[in-house]
Amino acid sequence: MRNKARSAVLSLALAATLAIPAVVSADSVQANPADETTPPIVTPFSVGNQQPLTTVSAATSIVPAYFSVPAGYGHGKFYFLNNGTSNLTVTMTHSSGLEYIAATVKPGVAYTWRSTADYPQGMRGGDYTISFHCSSGVNAKWSAFASNSVTEANA
Q1: 20 to 30 A Cα–Cα from 153, which one of 28, 39, 51, 80?
Q2: For residues 89 and 104, is the Cβ–Cβ distance under 8 A?
Q3: How far apart are CA 147 and CA 49, in angstroms?
Q4: Is 109 helix (H, G, I), strand (E, B) or coil?
């Protein structure tokens, strides 16, 4: 009888070691109905980097701004609007020293630069400095978009 009792206890112990972790993990995972019914929202700008329309205004003649292009997202579109009363010179330089944009924008005029025209293979990934120069003080707006798609950069 002792062997039967010992077998029963061992069987119960084995069953408990298998069942208890399964019950604990089942209790600790809670289903969120929103995860199953709400699809994720994907925007076209989630694949790269976007700088929303930003105002640059200063009494000084030179104002820097910064933008990063993630690796593999070298197709860019950059928009500049001169709200000042004098010509605005815009330059954009990669951290390596390579200059990508050197443009003069007349007062009240917008200028859009797309990398696909000058760099069909794409721009370098990394950090960029955009400099705004204007003799009467800087008053401009700018935005930027980096993508892994030539189509999106040309839109």
Answers
A1: 39
A2: yes
A3: 7
A4: coil
Output b/e per residue, 127-140; b: 16+ Cβ within 10 A: ebebbbbbeeebbb
Q: pLDDT tens digits, residue range 84-119?
A: 999 999 999 999 999 999 999 999 999 999 999 999
Give dist(CA 88, CA 143) in Å, integer. Answer: 15
Tokens, residue 72: 């593999």
For residues 111 and 80, the answer to whether their CB atoms sit within 8 Å is: yes
What six digits make up the tokens of 92?
A: 């954009």
Q: Are 137 and 84 in contact (CB under 8 A)?
A: yes
pTM of the model: 0.66
Q: What's the first-to-final CA gap in the chain, in angstroms?
A: 84
Other beta carbons within 10 Å of 47 = 16
